[in-house]
Amino acid sequence: MAQTTLWYMTDDSKFNDLDKSLRKKVFFKDSNSYPDFKIGSLLDSSKQRKRLPIPNYGGIEVSNVISPRNAVENELFKIWKKVLNRENFGVKDSFFDLGGHSLMAVRLMSLLQTKFHIEIPISTLFTNQTIESMAQVLTNKTNNISVESLVNLLPEEKLNNNSLFIIHPGMGQVMVFNQLAQELKTKFNKDVFAFQAPGLYGEMKPFTDMQKLAKFYANKLIEKNLDSYNLAGYCVGGTLAVEVAHILEQLGKKVASVQIIDIRPPHYQGELSEGYIADYFVEQLFRSFDVLDPQKKLNVKTMSKEQLNTLDFNKVIQYLREICIQLELVDKNYQTEQMENWYRTWKGIILGMNSFSVHKINAPIFLYHAKEGDYKGNEWEQYSRQVKTIDIPGDHYSILKDSNVKVLSKYIARKLEETNECRTN
User: Reduced to 3 states, what is the DSSP secondary structure of residue 141?
Assistant: First the structure.
């Protein structure tokens, strides 16, 4: 008789008792003998699923793993499998729970766009983390998916006066906030929404005037018609958050707090050349995606600022596209137009910040300073009468990752609670 394995979610202390109990209760109708089976324990579904045998995909549910049930889900499964480098998962499993991270998210969406010939914002993955959900998005859309500036970072986020609105860094993307949103939601029940930079997907012309961009974001928040607003921003997003707070306060809106993640106030750096801006973009690619294969970084041939300054704009775009392909951030079918949209958005923010000045606000500012980062001191004290600096482990790039983001999320949640109590008293 073939042996059957019963997989059961439990912990070690209960596993032996479960084994004995089941062996007493499970038997065949026509036999008093015990069937030949063993019991397998999984201590943590998100970490231990790799121990499960790979299911036979045919639309059958095995150990809560559901295989692809139609052509779109099947194509998505192939892409998920390629990016995640694993097979034992189903259409209801979250991309991020399966080990997906920011770099994988970029690769995933690039492959989806190539396969389905449709422009898909990376933010779509936050609210459609499973194959099942993403398949529904692709099935219901025949043209490019609409791009929104204010996006949910998790499925079923609920908008309320205690929600956090966080603004993107210079690269314009919001995938960097994934771990922070997960921590704030699962540990502290805080809903997080994020602003991604307009123009990333060619849906509109990128902003080069940061005052106008801040006003654009403020208007998006006013549309939500909340009693008060909790703002935050990472890198240049922190600067924008302060200006958004100023605009809201000028319009009579209540801003409970502004939480700034590791950035100093804007300051003029002199005239910025195309070579400087393009070289800085490449630097951010290397440093932001710290999961990149170090060997791939070594094999990528880069150009100096001086060399880049000799290229015309189209050649700069081609160079950046080739860098992204070599680093496997995107696939070889990544369009030049897509690269140009991303770079123009970045360029607009960098140039805009170089000539930008922020205004003082009434709301308290909480500055989260990366202990191993480059920025020292607290120049934000001149922008609010209530400024507090909090040191967080990590550098400018790792502050939003792994154990560091756990510390960061604890402080952010605490400040949200404190400002909420002040608002209601």
Answer: coil
CA dihedral 222, 223, 228, 231 (to 10 degrees): -70
Please tell me the distance from the alpha carbon of residue 146 to that of residue 70, in angstroms, as a whole number.
25
**Cα(338)–Cα(284) distance, rounded to whole angstroms?**
18
pLDDT reported for residue 367: 96
Q: Where are the alpha helices (DSSP H) in 128-259?
A: 131-140, 178-188, 210-222, 236-250
* Cβ neighbourhood burial of 76 (10 Å; 0-12, 13-18, 19+): buried
**3-state secondary structure (DSSP) of residue 335:** coil
Q: What are the b/e assignments for 39-49, b being 16+ CB within 10 Å?
A: bebeeeeeeeb
Which CATH code fits 65-146?
A: 1.10.1200.10
**What integer pLDDT is reported at residue 258 of this predicted model?**
98
Distance from C-alpha of 401 to C-alpha of 163, rounded to nearest angstrom: 21
The H-assigned helical ranges of 71-189 are 71-84, 102-116, 124-127, 131-140, 178-188
CA distance 153 to 119: 19
Tokens linked to 143: 């043209």
The whole-number pLDDT of residue 395 equals 93
Phi and psi at residue 35, to the nearest 5°: -70, 160
Spatial contact of 200 and 121, defined as CB atoms under 8 Å apart? yes
H/E run at residue 387: strand 387-392
Q: Which residue stretches of 225-383 are H helix? A: 236-250, 274-288, 294-299, 305-309, 313-326, 336-354
**Cα–Cα distance measured from residue 256 to residue 416, given in angstroms and rounded to the nearest whole number:** 8
- Domain locations in the chain? 65-146, 147-266+356-424, 274-354
Do 147-266+356-424 and 65-146 have the same topology in CATH? no
Segment (H or E) for 152: strand 150-152
Please tell me the distance from the alpha carbon of residue 396 to that of residue 13, in angstroms, as a whole number.
42
User: Which CATH superfamily, name and number, covers 147-266+356-424?
Assistant: Alpha/Beta hydrolase fold, catalytic domain (3.40.50.1820)
Over the chain (425 residues), the average pLDDT of each successive run of 10 is: 45 44 41 43 44 42 72 92 88 87 82 84 86 88 71 84 94 91 93 94 92 97 95 97 98 97 92 96 84 67 95 97 88 88 96 96 96 85 95 94 95 91 61
